[in-house]
Design goal:
The chain starts with a strand and ends in a 7-residue tail after the last helix. The protein is built from eight helices and 21 strands. By secondary structure, it is of the alpha+beta class. 34% of the residues are buried.
Length: 447
């Protein structure tokens, strides 16, 4: 039997390293070409790597949690002969060759490993005995920290659906602070971070959380999505001169419209929220002030402003992996239902950790919905490559003057940050005022 070594491939992102998140095989397993063998995390996404060989798994050369450079060996697979591997299955993902000879040969659609897996106890999962749920739903529950046995199923066959898990997680988030625990006798508490097992010499293991002798402090290595986010936000904050503006808005008619859409048979299978009306308002306002949809570009011939006549609408999403900003391509051409479906797909995909690289690239303007966290307003940092970002605050009932009388109304705050190199104060103010106008009177969208 000949051992074949699989090295970490270049997955087409222009990155040089990745973290081993979870091995899907163990020594002794039998694998076929395109069976998923490992899940890795880059600075942008989670990727399932398929096997380029068929045979028996020999040695895992990198531990879970290890950061491995592209081209480094990560696994050996024994084969009865030394014949070259079978051609890869078709894939829509580019398959660039890596200097070390590694090629990404598919995207893990070939099926499951045929023999034993590691014991269930080695993988923490949400309690789910007796619960009917598909594997992707179980993974979503695990990522969101949801106990499937506590979820009320709504599927036609009594199964737990994706919406069931998401709604349960949202409810837990909303109610988590209703009861405030009493202060304990201990002034500080440190949660221990278990260090990963020592990797093989070929892999570079992450530094374990460094703690002082009395465990009063800990240091967490910065990597993956957090590292990419930190670098992008630092670059944006120190290269683009930010200016922030905000305005309070009577969003009562937006709330009324959301209720009507939810009751409509045409939207029965789509999640409707004020974010949908906010997205429509932003697209409408961008058409009226195109410079908000532009970007500052430094070239060899000098600086230029690139004005995009299309809207790839980014939605900032808090996910189990950290902050991601996937975007809806050509959102300006969508009707309300199409936009609602796109928002729902984007949100669920992000929460499942399945956001593709293409969905995270090419954004032209971003919305961040800070209202879901009970926050009224903020000064968000602009996503690199864009000229602005707008935030939708919490929508609350507040006293509001209407026709000289104080009445209870649904009020929110719209705030935003903009690149002052690209757009001046009048354009910024006009854009924010336009968005506010639509939230106050959604009928403006009928023009």
């Amino acid at each position: 039997m000949t051992d074949q070594t699989f090295v970490l491939p270049d997955v087409g992102e222009g990155l040089t390293e990745a973290e081993i998140v979870q091995w899907r095989v163990a020594p002794g397993d039998t694998v076929a070409v395109n069976d998923v063998i490992v899940e890795i995390e880059t600075a942008k996404s989670l990727v399932e790597l398929p096997s380029p060989y068929s045979g028996t798994v020999g040695e895992l050369l990198a531990s879970e949690g290890a950061t491995v450079e592209v081209g480094s060996p990560i696994i050996t697979i024994g084969s009865a002969d030394a014949a070259p591997p079978a051609p890869p299955a078709p894939t829509t993902v580019p398959e660039p060759s890596d200097p070390g000879g590694a090629v990404l040969v598919g995207y893990g659609t070939g099926g499951a490993v045929s023999s034993r897996r590691r014991k269930p106890a080695e993988r923490p999962v949400a309690a789910s005995v007796g619960v009917v749920a598909k594997p992707p739903i179980r993974k979503l529950a695990r990522d969101l920290g949801v106990d499937l046995s506590a979820v009320t199923p709504s599927g036609t066959a009594g199964e737990v659906t994706r919406d069931d898990v998401v709604k349960h997680a949202e409810q837990a988030s909303v109610f988590r602070n209703i009861e405030t625990p009493a202060w304990g006798d201990v002034r500080e508490e440190t949660i221990e971070v278990s260090a990963p097992a020592a990797p093989a010499p070929t892999a570079s293991a992450p530094a374990p959380a460094a703690q002082s002798a009395d465990a009063r402090e800990e240091s967490i290595p910065v990597r993956g999505v957090r590292k990419a986010t930190a670098n992008a936000m630092t670059s944006s904050a120190y290269s683009a001169p930010h200016v922030s503006v905000w305005v309070d808005v009577d969003a009562s008619r937006t709330i009324e419209l959301v209720k009507r859409l939810k009751a409509s048979a045409d939207f029965a299978d789509v999640k409707i929220s004020p974010l949908l009306i906010m997205a429509r308002a932003v697209i409408w306002a961008l058409r009226r002030t195109p410079m908000i949809n532009a970007a500052w570009v430094d070239t060899e011939d000098g600086a230029q402003i690139s004005v995009r006549h299309y809207v790839n609408l980014g939605i900032a999403a808090a996910t189990p992996r950290g902050l991601l900003v996937p975007n809806i391509k050509d959102a300006q051409g969508m009707n309300t239902r199409e936009l609602a479906k796109a928002l729902e797909h984007l949100t669920l995909t992000a929460r499942e950790g399945k956001t593709s690289l293409a969905d995270q690239s090419g954004g032209t303007f971003t919305i961040t919905n800070i209202g879901v966290f009970g926050v009224d307003a903020g000064t968000p940092i602009i996503n690199p490559g864009e000229a602005g970002i707008i935030a939708l605050g919490a929508i609350r009932q507040k006293p509001w003057v209407v026709d000289g009388e104080v009445r209870p109304r649904w009020v929110t705050t719209v705030s935003g940050s903009f690149d002052h190199r690209v757009v001046d104060g009048d354009g910024i103010s006009r854009f924010i005022a336009d968005v506010a106008s639509v939230l106050e009177e959604p009928a403006l969208l009928l023009d």
